Structure formats: C-alpha cells, structure tokens
Known about the structure:
By secondary structure, the protein is mostly helical. Helix content is 51%, strand content 0%. The protein is built from 2 helices and no strands. The longest helix is centred in the first third of the chain and has 11 residues, at 6-16. It is elongated. The N and C termini lie far apart (33 Å).
Amino acid sequence: MRTADPALIESWIGAGNDLLEFEVIPVQGSADASRAADAGR
Length: 41
C-alpha cells in the first residue's frame, strides 16, 4: 500500500486490524535521500 496521505493508511489499517497486525515503515525515495544528504553537507 502506498499513499502520501497518512489518514488513508490509518483507515486501511483500521479496516483489517481485526485480522492482521500491521507495522508502518516510512520509506524515502533515492532522489529525496540524495537531496537530504547534499543539504547536510
């Protein structure tokens, strides 16, 4: 599942929470990571 809106993820998790346990791990794309690394230099 992928979305820029955290509320949609929370809603999706809530719908399946009675059957499964979820762990949400934020992911950063390589372009964003590269920009963040360059900004830190």
